[in-house]
Amino acid sequence: MASENTLFVLTKNKILILVEGLTEEKFVKDIVYPYFQSKGLYCIPKIATTKMVKNGPNFKGGIVSYEKTKKDIMFLLEDTNAIVTTMIDYYGFSNLVPFRDSIKGNNCFERVKFTEVLFKKDINSDRFIPYLQLHEFEAMTFVSPKEIANTMVEISKEKQVFEIKSHFNSPEEINDNPETIPSRRLKNIFKSYQKTLHGPLITKRIGIEAIRKECKHFNDWLEKLEILKSE
Known about the structure:
The structure is a single chain. This protein is of the alpha/beta class and about 230 residues long. It is built from 11 helices and 7 strands. It has helices at about 5-10, 20-35, 65-75, 90-95, 110-125, 145-150, 160-165, 180-190, 195-205, 210-215, 215-225; strands spanning about 15-20, 40-45, 50, 60, 80-90, 130, 130-135. The strands form 2 sheets. Strands 1, 2, 5, 6 and 7 form a 5-stranded parallel sheet that branches. Strand 3 and strand 4 (about 60) form a beta hairpin. Helix 2 (about 20-35) runs parallel beside helix 9 (about 195-205), helix 6 packs antiparallel against helix 7 (about 160-165) and helix 10 (about 210-215) packs across helix 11 (about 215-225). The chain is globular and about 50 Å long. It starts with a helix and ends in a 5-residue tail after the last helix.
């Protein structure tokens, strides 16, 4: 039986996903990978490098600069059998890009799409499909206040989460202020919330189809990847 790595080397339906950290890596492995595997596509998460070490393992996790992110992407594109995409929080990253003053749009959806267009133009590769998560990973958990409360074993707090969600048309619109980003809101309600543990667990319980229905920009990304097989 071929090993997992051998499978990736042999297939031409390989998608390398540059992810921001361990939370996104687990989400891709547990949810995105099995979903696309059934479609004959293989999504492999690659955690962004934060520091290069000459003799020893590199430091990984988190986006510290646009230059390092671009370097990671260019390295992944050296695999000519792969499509390269990203799963990076729009919150924070949009302030790091060198073209931030050129970003336009009347709402978060227009601005993130415009940023992705400029991002793709700068990378300049047909095999690069940029995706920036609005506004951060935790936004997807707000698809189901019930699953958040159940996972945190604090059922009585479901109403608090639902109250937050009710002020937005979509979980992806929960804003990018440092005090009101989705992760900060969750932490304020659930003191024991741990990003790398509870985030992927909640989204796995919600399911990718339910997330797609309420998170338009996330759904658009998956649709772009789904057509790769037919191409």
